[in-house]
Design a protein that fits this description.
Blueprint: E1 7-8, H1 10-17, E2 28-33, E3 65-66, E4 69-73, E5 80-84, E6 87-90, E7 96-99, E8 101-106, E9 118-124, E10 130-132, E11 137-140, E12 148-150
């Protein structure tokens, strides 16, 4: 199974509209979660509410990986895409085990692992857990139309 499309958390829509999450200036981090996690519960709103983040170590940290996000023009002058550069994790010193999903988190707290950070979107990466073994990489690239687009 290929990765699924990015899905917004319900509260993220409100946080964007209220200006809590600024899609232009907020720092975003990507976190990885295991299949036993509740990452796909759309009513969650903060990082501290989620369970089952991948364990720190071997090339992964629970602070998440900072993202470089951009707005790019789409196929027409009225279409804009929220995009990111590829996120890459490498198994270093051991394997990064039990990966199932990725979550984009808006850094509204003091650090990438602040429990008050706001959830933006999530995507299942596979139908089951998988492991990035030592020396191998997991690369998450943006879909052709970005994480999302405004028309």
């Amino acid at each position: 199974m290929a990765a699924q499309i990015w899905k917004f958390y319900n509260r993220a829509k409100f946080s964007i509209g209220a200006g809590v999450i600024d899609l232009n200036t907020t720092t975003f981090d990507m976190h990885l979660f295991i299949s036993a996690s509740d990452f796909a519960t759309g009513t969650q709103s903060t990082l501290g509410e989620l369970s089952g983040e991948v364990a720190s170590g071997n090339g992964y940290t629970r602070s998440g990986k900072p993202m470089t996000v951009t707005w790019t023009q789409g196929a027409s002058a009225s279409e804009f895409r929220f995009d990111m550069t590829a996120q890459i994790w490498t198994g270093t010193g051991g394997s990064i085990a039990n990966i199932k999903a990725a979550v984009i988190v808006a850094r509204t707290g003091a650090s990438g692992k602040a429990t008050a950070n706001k959830l933006l979107a999530y995507a299942s990466l596979s139908s089951g857990q998988f492991t990035v073994t030592i020396g191998n990489t997991l690369t998450l690239s943006t879909p052709a139309n970005g994480i999302f687009e405004l028309n």
